[in-house]
Design goal:
The strands form 2 sheets. The chain has a two-stranded antiparallel ribbon. Strands 3-4 form a two-stranded antiparallel sheet. The protein is globular. The protein contains 3 helices and 4 strands; from the N terminus they run αββαββα. It starts with a helix and ends with a helix.
Length: 86
C-alpha cells in the first residue's frame, strides 16, 4: 500500500492498529490509489491459501478536513471512526 501512495499524491497521516488514515489531493486520486491497492491484494489472494489472504475495507471521506497537531479532523472522519466498528 505504501508504494502506491506517492504515485497518487497520497500522504499517510497515521496508523491505528491495522488501520491507516491517508490524505489525498482529490477524491479521484484516492479512488485510483484504492483501485491499485485492491488489484494488488486480489493478485496476492489468488496466490495464497484463504487463511493467508488479505481482507481489506476502505472508506473515502469527501468533506473538508483540517490539519491539527499532526492529525486531520473533519466531520466525515469523525463519523467514519464511529461507525467503523459497527
Amino acid at each position: 500500500m505504501r508504494e502506491r501512495l506517492p504515485e497518487a499524491g497520497g500522504v499517510e497521516i497515521k496508523t491505528i492498529g491495522d488501520a491507516f488514515l491517508l490524505e489525498f489531493p482529490s477524491a479521484l486520486s484516492a479512488v485510483r490509489c484504492l483501485a491499485a491497492i485492491q488489484s494488488a491484494h486480489a493478485a496476492h489472494n489468488l496466490a495464497v491459501s484463504p487463511e493467508r489472504a488479505i481482507r481489506m475495507r476502505a472508506g473515502i471521506q469527501l468533506g473538508d478536513v483540517e490539519r491539527r497537531d499532526g492529525d486531520i479532523i473533519g466531520s466525515g472522519v469523525n463519523i467514519a471512526e464511529r461507525i467503523e466498528p459497527l
